[in-house]
Write a structure and sequence with these properties.
single chain, 504 residues, Rossmann fold, Serine Threonine Protein Phosphatase 5, Tetratricopeptide repeat, DNA Cyclobutane Dipyrimidine Photolyase, subunit A, domain 3, 3 domains, two-stranded antiparallel sheet, 7 strands, globular, binds flavin-adenine dinucleotide, binds iron/sulfur cluster
């Protein structure tokens, strides 16, 4: 038997089993990387996403080569042609691949006509394997993230004081998520100058015109494990102490606040979840950092991220087509060009995404996702857009975050109520409304904020469905304060808004 290893573009780690199991034999084992331009044509990806993935692949391939692995790097239109050639040239009889996290890619590999056995090895890049998550989920009546997170804290003994949570509580969000104060002094994100490999990828993407979405330069992301570790160290040193307090705040021109910016690297395999959690927990003990920030951050990586991955595998393929509210509006043109909206919150957030391929969680959930939800945009259209636009997007993390959390299209598998809000929330958590063409307090009239008329129209339209959720009753009781006449005006503003939209 001759073994060959195919390294996938989102598993750039020597810890994956195909590499760690064969370490002692590395000089004899052929390893292949494939950049397929056909695959990336499926989505109009942000150009910085393409640069990140291909540059990180090229760097990782060079590192393996320097470590004496027998590396082949192919740039091709598809996957099958270079694979077949390489398998034949090296007489490979068993192709080892880390099981792809994304279902569509797993299906694609299984459909390839290859003249050898394919051995999928377990993906060890999460704290909970998908089988462990499914066992946990099958043992529960309800799938609450908070229950899962507590189970993880106990299982991996993180922030524990014996059998009790450190400080006596599991969750310190009461001290987190404050509105932004004026003149906050935020840390600048750590940036990296493109090296020769990255510059070559940038030039090639410009030349080949794989996508025209998003600014390609300046490109400041890390592209190697070593650089990603610097991002983690910088976060722990400079941002972690304040992370929790302003986790949900949004400020004009402040793209990253105290957020970690580690998701692109975690999702590519350049960082491991356990090393992040350990670095943060160690800093807590060594520097006596505020527990609200430390616990709040660990909950993101150990709770939310693992939970989203688990739910993706717990659900079947049909999850991606969920549409509980039966929303079918198309994607407005301004999602592809921020200059085409005069709603300041959307304009600021979409401009930022165009410039960096990044937005923090509340910008994604409460500005972009919230707008799509209350305006009635198709969950699949908005999911496609998120998948194209964000630097850290992959199918497993998109389905759960966009279809489930953002759009509530799964009818409550993942969240107990929809994340829907009016301008009131955006005004409280940001400074966007102060500079907007619209009036944040109006839900009718010439300057009515679209977040307001869409919000009330959403509640009114889906009143019966929302009633069944129980947790929406208080919100729904406010509908009584609005007269039928006013609802007529609200719904005509919503209809008029759609009539005036250019569709992308
Ligand atoms: P921080 O705020 O510093 O958080 C730390 C880490 O926690 C993140 O890096 C991430 O690894 C993890 N995390 C926190 N929440 C989640 C979550 N809900 N799901 C998965 N991981 C989480 N995350 C992605 O990795 N890729 C995506 O494409 C993506 N799309 C999203 C779309 C929507 C509509 C929403 C609501 C959330 C999405 N998220 C996605 C989750 C979250 O917003 C990002 O992980 C986070 O903003 C990344 O920035 P950061 O590294 O600075 O995160
Ligand atoms: Fe957004 Fe409305 Fe505030 Fe303008 S007024 S920034 S549209 S929420």
């Amino acid at each position: 038997m001759t073994i060959g290893i195919w390294i996938l573009g989102d598993r750039l780690t020597t810890k994956q089993l195909s590499l760690s199991n064969n370490q002692s034999n590395k000089q004899q084992i052929p390893v292949i990387f494939i950049e397929s331009s056909e695959y990336v044509k499926q989505h109009p990806y942000h150009r910085q996403k393409l640069v990140l993935v291909w540059s990180a692949m090229r760097h990782f391939a060079a590192e393996l080569e320097a470590d004496n692995w027998k590396v082949t790097y192919k740039i091709a239109a598809d996957f099958a042609t270079p694979l077949q050639d390489w398998l034949a040239t090296n007489n490979i009889t068993e192709l080892q691949i880390t099981t792809p996290c994304d279902r569509p890619f797993h299906n694609l590999i299984q459909s390839l006509d290859l003249n050898c056995e394919i051995k999928f090895l377990a993906d060890n890049h999460f704290l909970w394997s998908k089988e462990e998550f499914i066992t946990w989920a099958n043992s529960r009546k309800r799938l609450l993230m908070e229950d899962f997170y507590r189970e993880g804290r106990k299982r991996f003994n993180i922030l524990m004081d014996g059998k009790k949570p450190l400080g006596g509580k599991w969750n310190y969000d009461k001290d987190n998520r404050k509105p932004p104060k004026k003149n906050l002094s935020t840390p600048s994100p750590l940036t990296f100058e493109p090296d020769a490999i990255t510059q070559e990828v940038i030039d090639w993407i410009k030349q080949e015109k794989f996508s025209d979405y998003g600014r390609i330069e300046p490109f400041n992301w890390a592209v190697t494990r070593q650089q990603a570790q610097q991002v983690l160290t910088y976060f722990v040193q400079e941002c972690l102490p304040q992370f929790g307090t302003y986790q949900d705040a949004m400020v004009t021109g402040e793209y990253t606040m105290w957020h970690s910016l580690i998701s692109p690297y975690l999702n590519l395999g350049l960082l491991e979840p356990r090393e992040i959690i350990d670095a943060v927990e160690t800093a807590y003990y060594q520097r006596e950092l505020p527990l609200n920030s430390v616990e709040g951050f660990i909950r993101q990586v150990m709770g939310w991220r693992e939970y989203m991955h688990g739910i993706y595998h717990f659900q079947d393929e049909n999850y991606s087509q969920s549409n509980w509210f039966e929303h079918h509006q198309p994607l407005p043109e301004f999602f592809g060009d921020a200059s085409k909206t005069d709603m300041n919150c959307l304009h600021q957030t979409l401009t930022q995404v165009e410039e960096t391929a990044y937005g923090h969680h509340i910008q994604r959930l409460m500005v972009l996702g919230n707008f799509a939800l209350i305006a009635g945009i198709s969950p699949q259209e908005i999911e496609n857009w998120f998948h194209s636009a964000f630097i850290d997007a992959y199918d497993w993390v998109m389905q759960t975050n966009v279809i489930g959390m953002g759009q509530f299209a799964d009818g409550g598998v993942l969240a107990s109520k929809p994340y829907a809000a009016s301008a009131n929330y955006i005004n409280k958590m940001s400074d966007y409304c102060g500079n907007c063409h619209y009036n944040k307090s109006d839900r009718t009239g010439d300057r009515a904020c679209p977040f307001n008329f869409f919000y009330w129209d959403f509640l009114h339209r889906h009143h019966e469905r929302l009633k069944s959720l129980g947790r929406m009753n208080l919100v729904l009781s406010h509908l009584k304060r609005i007269s039928e006449n006013e609802f007529g005006e609200i719904s005509s503003l919503a209809r008029k808004w759609w009539k005036n939209q250019q569709i992308s």
